[in-house]
């Protein structure tokens, strides 16, 4: 009769029923346990909760019957009735100051090995609930045994149970398991692994670099849901962490636009707490050959600064990107026809390249120090220098072809001096005009050889 009162809609009546069962237990403990356990499968969660409380009240730590009956509800036909097992087993495990937890693990093992995947899943969930708050090394070992379960639902349940099963502080094994799951071929499991690492690597539990590496790897996942989850978790577990900043900075240079977007949001979350490290890793990427990468880096830097600083960063990024390389050939290329001239060119110093390198180094130093006024001044000076170079007169090249020279039987230009104006007109309209337009965007250099011949060279 008292057990039936556990189903009453009134919470006061249910609590009174628990007290009554406690008083009746010494006279017929076995019968009281059975009557109480029968309510664990009730469809109403409030009744199941009261039944679990009553079962722990009338049982003792050495009462195998209560543990067995509670665990058997995991195998019930009605899936709703299985929900009462976890809470009841948790309460039973707290008997005898937690010593009864070993008995709980003992009755769960057969269900963890059950051929029905749904029963294995509920047993895994119950295991995580039982150990939650205190953690248990044995619970982690039991979960590890199901890490390769053939059913996806069971593996997801294993990952989700890890934070509860792991000890509050020493959870290295659980982090290693979650990091392994983060590389699983199933995106649902990768999402679950990121969520588990958010709890396992929280500030009060662990500062594991393995967790940071695992989550940052998911930032470049091919599945958007995984990327977004990793982005959120990274902001939660790694603000200011050097490992995180280094890893996410690499993702900013990923060829996939979706990965870069996720990396930008993650970087905005972790960078402000360690701005010096963040700028040190991002400023060099402003010279990346991919415009999309440069934009992602600029967005990441602007996102962790004030509006005024963000404007300076955007201007600097645009300048560095525009003048990243002012020559149309690879760095170090020169189209020399004579081997001796190639040696001579290697020994000469390219003043324009040195000036550009000095500007970029000064700009990077200014950004690292947070001196955005200096960065703006450097940008203005660089624009002025480039404008002066573009305004310089360009020395035109001698465009006589080898065939034209060969008609006179010599390698020297034998045109009369009084035809110079006519030749100059030809140079301005033909191939010479192409050379002039090309040289106007680069650096022109003329070398007068010992025999008086003028040779134009384009860098």
In the CATH hierarchy, what is the class of one domain? Mainly Alpha
**Would you identify the CATH architecture of one domain?**
Alpha Horseshoe
Under CATH, the homologous superfamily of one domain reads Leucine-rich Repeat Variant
How many helices in DSSP terms?
24
Q: Quick check: average pLDDT?
A: 74
Give a brief outline of the structure.
With 459 residues, this protein is an all-alpha fold. Helices cover 63% and strands 2% of the residues.
What do these coordinates show?
With 459 residues, the protein is mostly helical. Among the domains are: 178-301, Leucine-rich Repeat Variant (Alpha Horseshoe), CATH 1.25.10; 305-391, no CATH class; 394-407 and 419-459, no CATH class. The chain contains 24 helices and two strands. It has helices at residues 11-24, 29-37, 45-58, 64-72, 84-93, 101-112, 117-131, 137-144, 152-165, 172-181, 187-200, 209-219, 224-237, 242-251, 257-270, 275-282, 291-303, 307-322, 339-347, 351-368, 372-391, 402-406, 420-429, 431-440, and strands at 444-448, 454-458. It has a two-stranded antiparallel ribbon with strand order 1-2. α5 packs parallel to α7, α10 runs antiparallel to α11 (187-200) and α14 (242-251) runs antiparallel to α15 (257-270). The relative contact order is 0.04.
């Amino acid at each position: 009769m008292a057990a039936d009162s556990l189903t009453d809609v009134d919470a006061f009546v249910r609590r009174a029923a628990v007290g009554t069962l406690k008083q009746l237990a010494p006279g017929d403990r076995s019968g009281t346990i059975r009557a109480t356990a029968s309510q664990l499968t009730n469809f109403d969660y409030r009744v199941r909760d009261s039944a679990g409380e009553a079962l722990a009240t009338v049982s003792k730590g050495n009462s195998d019957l209560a543990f067995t009956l509670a665990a058997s509800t995991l195998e019930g036909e009605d899936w709703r009735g299985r929900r009462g097992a976890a809470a009841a087993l948790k309460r039973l495990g707290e008997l005898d100051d937690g010593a009864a937890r070993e008995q709980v693990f003992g009755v769960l093992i057969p269900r963890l090995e059950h051929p029905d995947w749904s029963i294995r899943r509920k047993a895994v969930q119950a295991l995580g609930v039982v150990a939650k708050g205190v953690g248990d090394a044995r619970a982690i070992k039991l979960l590890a045994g199901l890490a390769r379960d053939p059913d996806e639902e069971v593996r997801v349940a294993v990952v989700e149970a890890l934070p509860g099963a792991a000890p509050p502080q020493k959870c290295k094994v659980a982090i290693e398991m979650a990091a392994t799951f983060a590389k699983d071929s199933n995106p649902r499991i990768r999402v679950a692994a990121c969520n588990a690492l958010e709890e396992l690597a929280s500030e009060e539990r662990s500062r594991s670099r393995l967790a940071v590496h695992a989550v940052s790897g998911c930032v470049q996942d091919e599945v958007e849901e995984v990327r977004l989850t990793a982005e959120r978790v990274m902001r939660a577990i790694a603000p200011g962490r050097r490992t995180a900043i280094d890893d996410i900075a690499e993702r900013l240079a990923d060829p996939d636009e979706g990965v870069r977007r996720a990396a930008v949001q993650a970087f905005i979350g972790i960078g402000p707490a360690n701005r010096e490290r963040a700028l040190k890793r991002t400023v060099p990427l402003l010279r990346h050959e991919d415009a999309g990468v440069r934009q992602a880096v600029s967005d990441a830097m602007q996102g962790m600064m004030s509006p005024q600083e963000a404007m300076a960063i955007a201007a600097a990024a645009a300048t560095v990107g525009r003048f990243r390389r002012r020559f149309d050939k690879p760095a170090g290329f020169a189209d020399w026809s004579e081997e001796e001239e190639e040696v001579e060119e290697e020994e000469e110093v390219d003043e324009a390249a040195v000036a550009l390198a000095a500007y970029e180094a000064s700009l990077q130093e200014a950004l690292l120090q947070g001196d955005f006024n200096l960065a703006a001044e450097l940008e203005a000076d660089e624009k002025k220098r480039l404008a002066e170079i573009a305004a310089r007169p360009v020395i035109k090249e001698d465009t006589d072809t080898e065939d034209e020279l060969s008609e006179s039987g010599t390698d020297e230009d034998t045109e009369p001096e009084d035809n110079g104006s006519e030749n100059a007109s030809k140079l301005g309209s033909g191939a010479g005009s192409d050379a002039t337009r090309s040289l106007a965007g680069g650096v022109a250099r003329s070398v007068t050889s010992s025999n008086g011949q003028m040779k134009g060279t384009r860098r």
